[in-house]
Amino acid sequence: MPPSDALPYSRPLNLKICLGLPIAVAVVLMLLELTPMDMAVAHWLFDPVKGDFIGRHSHFLENGLHNRAKQIVILLALLAVVAFIASFFAARLKPIKRELGYVVLAMGLSTGFVTPAKVVTSVQCPWSLTEFGGDQTYSELLAPRPATDKPGRCWPGGHAATGFALFALFFALRDRRPALARKALVFAFALGVVFSIGRMLQGAHFLSHNIWTAVFCWLISLGSYYAVLYRRAPKDAAVGPSSSETPPA
Question: Tens digit of pLDDT for each residue in 118-131?
Fold first, then answer.
């Protein structure tokens, strides 16, 4: 096994789960485009009496769960950038310099792809559609967009990506701290789900928008892990820290 201050050998990944599952979810999402699932869920969250989504004007959802929570995650990302820069000079951080660089890269890519994807796809937000009091015409993800002066900017989910970007913490920790990595994975998934539900209650996104976001953030974190941190162990080498922790996927 490499010395404790070196990049550890990587624990084997179950690619049937880590890669196969998100690909399967993507296929299912494409098939669900042929169904009214998104519209049905949006109607459940819409109050026809008030003529608006049930959380559209919620102070907690907009200022707490959207603005403040996003700022906290952005602060975490900035701290990762500062720590990565400091790792070139601080002896205590040098052993984890590569992990810090990975977190900066994976979180940057997981949030950075959102705006260009929104521009390219021009998908409408639920609150902009005629079915929910707006003036835009609904169209499926892969369908041509109706002519409009206000192209949509709602696919994928930007706020969901802020939460799911923390998948990076799981991969950064999995080879040195497996137990903590599992907790980070649960936290990132839960945060992304909460952010997703909050924006759906406001009418900002359809359900599928947020699931697609989770798939992309996971694949970005996984690909970045292979590019930056993955280190295959020789056949005769021990893998991971010398503990009884069960390795995560």
Answer: 999 999 999 999 99
In this structure, which amino acid lies at residue 244? S
Tokens standing for 243? 């503990």
- DSSP label at residue 150: S
Asked whether 66 and 75 are in contact (CB, 8 A), the reply is: no
Residue 240 belongs to some domain of the structure: no
Q: Using a cut of 0.85, tell me whether the model's pTM lies above it.
A: yes
Q: Cβ atoms within 10 A of the Cβ of 158, count?
A: 21
Work out the pLDDT band at 7, boundaries 50, 70, 90: confident
- DSSP E strands in the chain: the ranges are 46-47, 52-53
Quick check: helix, strand or coil at residue 217?
A: helix
Q: Would you say residue 60 lies in a domain? A: yes
Letter for the amino acid at 85?
I
79, 72 Cβ separation under 8 angstroms: no
Task: Give residue 72's domain range.
Answer: 16-142+150-228
